[in-house]
């Protein structure tokens, strides 16, 4: 069977090329000549009848075989961003148009949406505020391993709003904890000008801690009251009869609140 004679198309006509000869570029149509003349890479038509070679270029992605010569062009992220993995970032910034605030929902895949939002911006809940807002029936925990401390830094006092009913303002000297306990105390009769002492157990209290005392509503007139941490875990309550006759205080519930430094 005779071999086919090579042919080319020139200006819409078929022209036969003698066997063994090559096709001179001068005989090719301009677009084909431009395409053939390019080097390795991806051929891109830049204008009518003109081609050039391009390669893929990425920023922070990993690119393999950018010109496709050695194999398929492969683009990968530096780490897997699949939702089943845990990618790590050196830093992560969120931004929003000025005055619109920024909200982000946190979702636990095992239980679904927990409706916890990170909200910051001029609209939430006040100008230039930053807040964790828990909208589900749950609590916000800050937890560290190995009893490591959690620190909050602010330019002034640390203000905590308790469900809109009051505030805790912390500034000045640092303290470790606020301890509290109650006890029913019955001092018995106290002679004129005398005093009596009873104790309340407050775990964690230490000498020189500050003590605030909550008193029974019906405490008798003429009694002066003081309290102190008299020993580890122990608050001593002292009643002093400042009158000229004996007083027998009724048994009542006393609350000792200790600020532990």
Brief summary of the model shown:
This protein is mainly beta and 261 residues long.
Provide the CATH top-level class of the largest domain. Mainly Beta
Helix content: under 10%
> How many beta-strand elements?
17
Number of domains: 3
Q: What do the pLDDT scores average to? A: 75
CATH topology of the largest domain: Deoxyuridine 5'-Triphosphate Nucleotidohydrolase, Chain A
Specify the structural class.
mainly beta
H/E element sequence: EEHEEEEEEEEEEEEEEE
How much strand content do the residues show? 35-45%
Q: Biggest β-sheet, characterized?
A: 3 strands, antiparallel
Gross morphology is rod-shaped
CATH-level-2 architecture of the largest domain: Distorted Sandwich
**Weakly predicted, low-confidence segments:** 121-127
- Give the strand order of the largest sheet, numbering strands 1, 2, ... along the chain: 7-8-9
Count of individual helical segments: 1
Rounded to the nearest angstrom, the radius of gyration is 41 Å
First-to-last CA distance = 104 Å
Describe the structure.
This protein is mostly beta strands and 261 residues long. It folds into 3 domains: 49 residues, no CATH class; 69 residues, no CATH class; 84 residues, Deoxyuridine 5'-Triphosphate Nucleotidohydrolase, Chain A (Distorted Sandwich), CATH 2.70.40. Helix content is 3%, strand content 39%. The chain contains 1 helix and 17 strands. The protein is rod-shaped and about 140 Å long. The N and C termini lie far apart (104 Å).
């Amino acid at each position: 069977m005779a071999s086919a004679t090579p042919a080319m198309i020139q200006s819409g006509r078929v022209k036969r090329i003698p066997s063994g000869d090559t096709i001179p570029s001068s005989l090719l149509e301009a677009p084909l000549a431009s395409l053939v003349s390019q080097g390795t890479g991806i051929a891109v038509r830049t204008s009518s009848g003109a081609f050039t070679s391009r390669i893929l270029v990425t920023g922070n992605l990993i690119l393999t075989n950018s010109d496709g010569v050695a194999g398929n062009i492969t683009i990968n992220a530096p780490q897997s961003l699949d939702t089943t993995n845990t990618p790590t970032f050196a830093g992560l910034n969120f931004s929003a148009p000025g005055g619109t605030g920024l909200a982000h929902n946190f979702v636990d895949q095992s239980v679904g949406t927990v409706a916890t939002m990170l909200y910051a911006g001029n609209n939430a809940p006040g100008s230039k505020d930053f807040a964790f807002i828990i909208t589900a029936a749950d609590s916000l925990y800050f937890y560290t391993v190995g009893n490591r401390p959690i620190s909050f830094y602010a330019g002034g006092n640390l203000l905590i709003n308790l469900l809109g009913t009051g505030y805790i303002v912390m500034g000045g000297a640092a303290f470790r904890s606020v301890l509290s306990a109650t006890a029913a105390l019955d001092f018995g009769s106290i002679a004129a000008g005398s005093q009596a002492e009873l104790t309340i157990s407050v775990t964690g209290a230490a000498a020189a801690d500050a003590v605030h005392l909550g008193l029974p509503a019906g405490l008798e007139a003429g009694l002066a009251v003081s309290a102190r941490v008299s020993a580890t875990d122990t608050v001593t309550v002292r009643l002093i009869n400042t009158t000229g006759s004996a007083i027998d205080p009724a048994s009542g519930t006393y609350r000792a609140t200790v600020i532990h430094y």
